[in-house]
Task: inverse folding
DNA sequence: CACTTGACCTGTCCGC
DNA sequence: TGCGGACAGGTCAAGT
């Protein structure tokens, strides 16, 4: 569920909350959620300061002063929630410092959520020296956190094969068209979801951008022109930026680093709107399955293209 | 290599 | 009310 806009929203929050904090300990209770051993943690994370928080596609990268980084993939249900030190909540005092956590003085916007942490879906807890904590929650255990040397990040298969970021300045319609030709027989939806072609777009924004470009999700790539891909690329950028503005999409699980939900789905044109009218032409939006995914489209303005 | 399917998981919802 | 099954969808491994 977290796609590029959700991950970017989390990244911005973490950058503000974590920068310059120092790690004092790490707890985890599910091996696959954090495969590193205690020696790695002791040598490369404990005592380290957070220097930057970056993003590549759907992955969060928390860089440390030791030259190592936490690489975090939220997959379907992962959450990264920052909980300020207890005393910044209890002391109901006006803020005098520059610590962003102090804006929670007098009550965090989502106290109830934060106060309930850790809960049964908490997999990893990163504790900072001031008592604040970062919780990695993941109901379905698909996501993971790994501690890895910056010099080795691109030796991981996932990053080696990752395509250009959907919002990266190194991408344009022409490059996207060329990359997509590698899978010319596949439905366009499958190819947009393929992170090795283009990084960051998931199910929600694929449906939304295909609607914007008036392309049927099942259309084989080989039937699409450069002009259509130019339009599709523009739509991808448009829906991603709009969603970042709205704080992302909250279906069930997603919250940002401060526990807040996103509102993009209120603005969605087709996603989860089967049975409703298409905002462009008034036809009834349908839901089908394409490459095993729930797929929403307007049968009238996204007509299937005939193979001639 | 291109492409498809099943596995990884848990919570929720639907029909009986 | 309980119970089985389908579904949610990001990625990898294994299949054709």
Result:
């Amino acid at each position: 569920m977290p796609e590029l806009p959700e991950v970017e929203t989390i990244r911005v929050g973490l950058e503000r909350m974590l920068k310059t904090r120092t790690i004092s300990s790490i707890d985890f209770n599910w091996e696959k959620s954090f495969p590193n051993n205690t020696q790695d943690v002791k040598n490369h994370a404990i005592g380290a300061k957070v220097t930057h928080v970056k993003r590549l596609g759907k992955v969060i990268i928390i860089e440390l002063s030791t030259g190592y980084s936490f690489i975090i993939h939220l997959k379907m249900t992962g959450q990264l929630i920052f909980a300020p030190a207890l005393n910044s909540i209890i002391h109901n005092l006006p803020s005098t410092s520059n610590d962003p956590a102090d804006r929670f003085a007098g009550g965090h916007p989502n106290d109830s959520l934060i106060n309930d942490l850790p809960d049964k879906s908490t997999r990893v807890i990163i504790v900072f020296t001031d008592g604040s904590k970062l919780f990695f929650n993941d109901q379905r255990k698909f996501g993971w956190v790994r501690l890895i040397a910056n010099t080795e990040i691109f030796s991981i298969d996932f990053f080696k094969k990752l395509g250009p970021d959907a919002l990266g300045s190194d991408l344009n319609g022409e490059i996207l068209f060329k990359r997509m030709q590698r899978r010319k027989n596949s439905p366009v939806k499958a190819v947009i979801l393929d992170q090795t072609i283009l990084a960051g777009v998931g199910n929600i924004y694929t449906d939304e951008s295909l609607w914007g470009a008036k392309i049927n999700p099942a259309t084989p790539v080989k039937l699409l022109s450069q002009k259509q891909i130019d339009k599709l690329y523009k739509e991808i950028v448009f829906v991603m930026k709009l969603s970042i503005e709205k704080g992302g999409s909250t279906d069930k699980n997603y919250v940002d680093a401060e526990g807040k939900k996103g509102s993009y789905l209120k603005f969605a044109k087709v996603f989860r709107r089967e049975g409703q009218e298409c905002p462009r032409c008034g036809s009834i939006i349908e839901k089908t399955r394409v490459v095993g995914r729930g797929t929403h489209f307007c049968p009238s303005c996204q007509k299937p293209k005939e193979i001639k």
